[in-house]
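User: Here's a chain of 291 residues. Predict its fold as tokens.
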Amino acid sequence: MLALTAPAKINWTLAVLGKRPDGYHAIQSLMQTISLCDELTFAESKYLRVASGLNIPAERNLVYRAAQALRNATGCADGAAITLVKDIPTGAGLGGGSSDAAAALKGLNILWGLGLSDTELAAIGATVGSDVPFFFAGPGARVEGRGEVVTPMPMTQSYPLLLVYPSFGISTAWAYSELSQRRGQDLTNRGDNLDNIQLLFDILEKKDFSRIQPCLRNDLEEAVAARYSVIAGIRQQLLDAGAAAACMSGSGSTVFGVFSDESAAAEAAVRFPGCWTRVVRTLTLANESGK
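Assistant: Prediction complete.
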């Protein structure tokens, strides 16, 4: 039996640049994996089966879809018994489903003896979900296009984070649609569409806590917080609790706070009794396993 972990991610910055001809939105993002992980186990089987406890049809399960995409791309007809144990909340903006899909591709590549490279697996993953290719390039990377253009960035500093998930999920498609409706054609012409990814990367590498917040950006937070005011409230509470910076991750609804140490993050967690919270660390090449 083979076991793999699938780490969650945060978006340090997420700029939505405009809608592409293929209907997807073009983005620029600095993403990093964190020490919150799902776990997948793989065993040989005559049939392809996924046990996850998620109450969704197979065609919506990204692990199953990734397995089918791998079969279609390679012509492999083998089966597998895959068990997914979730710890990453769903609809949280933490990339859990995409990371699970990437781990499924990695695990089945080993189980089925396909010998595909990470580059080949990432290309297959891009057909399953826009964030999937990132999980072949982490722990830190610049992400562009619709998510399929990934440039690894060697992030060496690990930060304690407090994740606050207000116990409801956000549809990624809805968040992008809301932003488009709010901004209209101005998506590609906004004066604040500046590429600050390298600047933010340098600040994070120097652990310059005082300069992190001005560089954090998530365009989707504007649309999501307009509908769900709790998002802005969590963000402010994190700052009031001593976070050096706070921002919504991905399409939400998780908001993360950056703290100087894990004990300070844990103390802040008591301010959110109605929410799911977790103290985690950002992953680097030195602590990439998340365990």
